[in-house]
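Why do we care about 3D structure at all? Because function follows from shape, and shape follows, mostly, from sequence. That is the central idea of this module. The next example makes it concrete: a single protein chain, its amino acid sequence, and then its structure expressed as tokens.
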Amino acid sequence: MPKPPSLGHPTAPPLSDDCRVLLDAAPDAMLIVNGDGEIVIANPTAERLFGYSAAEFEGRAVESLIPGRLREQHELHRANYMSHPQARPMGAALELLAQRSDGTEVPVDISLSPLNTDHGAFVLLAIRDVTGRRRTEEGLRKSEREYRALFENANDSIMIFELESETILDANPKACEIYGFTRDEFIGMSLKSLTVDVPRGEEGLRQLLQTGSCRDYHTVHIRKDGTPMSIVANSALLERNGRKVVLSIDRDDTERIRAQAEREQLIEELTAALAKIKTLTGLLPICASCKNIRDEAGNWTAVERYVRDRSEANFTHSICPECAQRLYPDDYKKKT
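And the structure:
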């Protein structure tokens, strides 16, 4: 294998060919810094990350790779570290920023390893660009904030419970409102204690396990005060911290069902009332002389009876003035 070109400052510690190959092939930016904070070796990844050539790196103060507002503080940290050097791995929960040659800043994770050689004390820095990771973490934090906002402000009850034990892990304010329990009372409670028909509920969970979701599942739950409540549930199977959990969005359907039952009862009563109303329609054959009406069977019957049998009407008998004068002229004259 050909020897890689030297990247080092004359005061750099001597490196074997194998070490130089590993340094050049490293996916992270690698810098070797002397006790004065000067960069003596930089690998190709560092050149790409910071935008400096190997020659520009040589002898450059390591603080030049840090935003100006942080350099003074970094010098103090470096001095403290050199007085008590020890390995510091990446992921030490430090929010670190580096500065490229064009002045742009980049979030990084840095590990430090002391190097004690015959040529003096050095520090090996492994620098990793964590822009993508930070973006992912921020995306996750944003999603969590949005989820919590929806969870806390939803107009429906939302509960999260373990699939196997049916233990409630969380409940939103709406669930507390409609069930009457506090959140602390909910957490650790078994969903079975809220369910009227436990076997049917377990059948619903088996269906959920097979399909991963369950929509418009109608059931009856019990409030804290013991009153029943009609529920329409929409559930989904999720994985949380390695466990299968159920996210259940429940809507209190009690009032709607009550209103529907009242409406159906009203319709039934109106239908029954309409069935009792009889209406006479069509042509009625009536005798021109006696005024009897011929019914459906062909029999002739008095008009009063015909109308009374086929409607809600009834008759009272009286006599009009004209008939009274014609039939009872003497009596009529006395009254008038």
